[in-house]
Write a structure and sequence with these properties.
The chain is mainly alpha-helical. It contains 10 helices and 2 strands. The protein has one domain (about 5-135, about 145-270). Helix content is about 75%, strand content about 5%. A two-stranded antiparallel sheet has the order 1-2.
Length: about 270
């Protein structure tokens, strides 16, 4: 096993540790780990990330369900357009994208630049969402979940399309949407978002990538299995350490990773 692969599987363990300790964030590292440590191309990296994100989110979402923090009706209402968005992008858009998107003089803007550039840009608000302190919001007990269907449809399609393009779950987009558009309490929004991410990522992967490309199942299941080990280790460690401080540190790490991706794709390779 080469040194890069050893670091890569270490990255898989780190993804799981993050999910186990702070309850999220780790899956956003899947694409950089797959692309830069395993040297997997942008199509396969984002596809494999969808599977990894989907499975890990499903584990987290089921844990939240047993705590009573999942609104399944909201998950279905928001999830249907999100599933549609990600499946359409993975099945039709990604296979149709040419390797060179735009040529300006001697500069070629490639498909990889577009996908990873968008990924790096969206990592920044994800990092800030981990850095900011949570404010306790008092929600009236009598408040009912009311759906703004047109906006939920639009938001769901948008989040699904973004997920399809970059291979990440987009929880930082979904949670505010659930709070604002469906009047869902914050804790329930977090749990429900995990279920939405799991469903749309896995269905998008199986209805899109699994039908349009050759999947290295041995590698993918090994990577996901190591992440699972990290989740269980992280869950145990979380009983002894302050997850909020680690969450802040991880937010800074994601921000640095966003800069690194931009540097690698637009400075080094550009």
């Amino acid at each position: 096993m080469e040194l890069l692969e050893i670091f890569g599987y270490g990255g898989a363990l780190l993804i799981g540790l993050s999910l186990g300790i702070i309850g999220g964030g780790g899956s956003i590292l899947a694409v950089p780990v797959l692309a830069y440590l395993f040297l997997i191309d942008e199509k396969a990296a984002t596809a494999y990330s969808l599977f990894i994100v989907g499975v890990s989110s499903l584990v987290g979402g089921l844990k939240q369900h047993f705590k009573g923090y999942v609104d399944w009706r909201t998950a279905i209402v928001f999830g249907i357009p999100a599933i549609t968005g990600v499946a359409l992008v993975r099945y039709f858009v990604i296979p149709a994208l040419p390797e060179i998107l735009v040529t300006i003089g001697s500069f070629q803007f490639t498909r990889r630049m577009g996908m990873f550039g968008l990924f790096a840009v969206l990592m920044i608000p994800a990092a800030f969402s981990m850095l900011k302190q949570k404010k306790k919001v008092l929600t009236p007990k009598s408040s009912e979940v009311k759906y703004n269907y047109p906006l939920i449809l639009l938001e769901g399609l948008l989040v699904g399309a973004v997920t399809g393009l970059i291979g990440a779950g987009g929880g930082f987009l979904i949670i505010p949407a659930l709070v604002i558009l469906a009047n869902v309490e914050m804790k329930v929004a977090i749990g429900t978002s995990l279920i939405i991410i799991a469903i749309k990522s896995l269905i998008g992967f199986f209805l899109g990538d699994a039908l349009t490309m050759t999947i290295d199942w041995t590698f993918l299941l090994r990577f996901t299995g190591i992440s699972f080990i990290g989740i269980f280790i992280g869950s145990y460690i979380s009983n002894f350490i302050d997850g909020s401080k680690l969450k802040k540190a991880f937010g800074y790490f994601i921000f640095v990773m966003a800069i690194f991706i931009f540097y690698m794709e637009f400075i080094v390779k550009g």
